[in-house]
TrEMBL record:
Protein name per its UniProtKB record: Glutamine synthetase
Subunit-structure text: Homooctamer.
Family the UniProt entry places it in: Belongs to the glutamine synthetase family.
Gene behind this protein: LOC120265448
Segments forming domain GS beta-grasp: 83-163
Predominant cellular place of this UniProt entry's protein: plastid
Record's subcellular location: Plastid, Chloroplast
This enzyme's EC code(s): 6.3.1.2
Length: 436
């Protein structure tokens, strides 16, 4: 929808509330024109004259916005075979997403049809200035919901010119683990619950919260409806549809416990696809919040105090877990996970110690625990899994800013490839009261 910039002075003249801290507020073009027409009927000729000037200004501005939107929405398919490919990669922090565009001669169906590309790694914290070239390898393709047509989004990983993965390329190691025969035979499934927080851009405070203040206590906001309880639904819905258009395996979304916080779920997805889909979904969310003028935060504890943090709970199963007798396989996996708790925690996201406190539906970061239907444990097993004797487990430790390549591959490595000593296994089983 085209938006009009309306000076606050004009808002007061038209009896429109202007309670935002900015000197100008955004108003849809149709509402602006409607207000002009209503005020023309009520004003004197002197008033009409002044509003005619404003109307001319609005039409010029609206025309500019309209022409720009026309070009942005232009369908180039009838005129050229060429497409635009948006190459997407992970930057130097391990969580920032970068991208740039390239013209491709014709539509493609597989990443192998796309050329490798390069970028300036010294500008992303991934290479020194004197040898700054980093090479992009296309790995996964999604449809582009912003440009439409045959245009695509391309998830890439990153290498030196000699072909070595750079340190922030976590996909390369994940691909090695997922290509192991024992892992592929187990067909690992993942369902990832990505939580995120929406922040007001000018103050970096959660959407819907009074600036510098706090809303009412948690309770009425989870999966809620209403202007006083749900903040950012349009962004969540726009992201949902964009993911479906792109071909991301998104399975649902909901408002979260803390106001201004949301969650969406991706999966079930097999192997490395799960992480590719999460990274692409994060890119879409960054672009949508950019357009909405809202800041996306993946901080695991965006607001200190009696407020829920943001996680990225990872539901996981193998073929053996999903078959009859799978509950015993799940318990063996839990035992292995307990023995590598520190390794997993160190790889499950920055700032996670602020979230995993033992409060707000989390376990303590220092203690491994598991339970059936217990959201205060490290690993939760569902009631249905216990009843059926097969199914999946939920790892509730990953933070919202975790790298899905790291988390998914580490779960597969620990539960399928890694074998503890018999002594360690026996001690862990006794401690966790597991019979395997």
């Amino acid at each position: 929808m085209a938006q009009m910039l309306v000076p606050s002075m004009q808002c007061s003249q038209m009896r429109v509330p202007c309670n935002l801290p900015q000197t100008r507020s955004l108003m849809p073009a149709k509402m602006w024109k409607s207000l002009l027409l209503n005020n023309q009927k009520a004003k004197t000729k002197k008033g009409l004259s002044s509003f005619r000037v404003f109307a001319v200004k609005s039409e010029n501005s609206n025309g500019t916005v309209s022409r720009l939107e026309d070009l942005l929405n232009l369908d180039i398919t009838p005129f050229t075979e060429k497409i635009i490919a948006e190459y997407i990669w992970i930057g130097g922090t391990g969580i920032d997403i970068r991208s740039k565009s390239r013209t491709i001669p014709k539509p493609v169906e597989h990443p192998s049809e796309l050329p490798k590309w390069n970028y300036d790694g010294s500008s992303t914290g991934q290479a020194p200035g004197e040898d700054s070239e980093v090479i992009l390898y296309p790995q996964a393709i999604f449809k582009d919901p912003f440009r439409g047509g045959n245009n695509i989004l391309v998830i890439c990983d990153t290498y030196t010119p000699s072909g070595e993965p750079i340190p922030t390329n976590k996909r390369h190691r994940a691909a090695q683990i997922f290509s192991e025969k024992k892992v592929t035979n187990e067909v690992p499934w993942y369902g990832i619950e990505q939580e995120y927080t929406l922040l007001q851009s000018n103050v970096k405070w959660p959407l819907g919260w009074p600036v510098g203040g706090y809303p009412g206590p948690q309770g009425p906001y989870y999966c809620a409806a209403g202007a006083d309880k749900s903040f950012g639904r349009d962004i969540s819905d726009a992201h949902y549809k964009a993911c479906l258009y792109a071909g991301i395996n998104i399975s649902g979304t909901n408002g979260e416990v803390m106001p201004g916080q949301w969650e969406y779920q991706v999966g079930p997805s097999v192997g490395i696809d799960a992480a590719d889909h999460i990274w692409c979904s994060r890119y879409l969310l960054e672009r949508i919040t950019e357009q909405a003028g809202v800041v996306l935060s993946l901080d695991p504890k965006p607001i200190e105090g009696d407020w829920n943090g943001a996680g990225c709970h990872t539901n996981y199963s193998t073929k053996s877990m999903r078959e009859d007798g799978g509950f015993d396989v799940i318990k063996k996996a839990i035992l292995n996970l307990s023995l590598r708790h520190k390794e997993h925690i160190s790889a499950y996201g920055e700032g996670n110690e602020r979230r995993l406190t033992g409060k707000h539906e989390t376990a303590s970061i220092d203690t491994f625990s598991w339970g059936v239907a217990n959201r205060g444990c490290s690993i939760r097993v569902g009631r249905d899994t216990e009843k059926r004797g097969k199914g999946y487990l939920e790892d509730r430790r990953p933070a919202s800013n975790m790298d899905p390549y790291v988390v998914t591959s580490l779960l597969a490595e620990t539960t399928i490839l890694w074998e503890p000593t018999l002594e360690a296994e026996a001690l862990a089983a006794k401690k966790l009261q597991l019979q395997v």
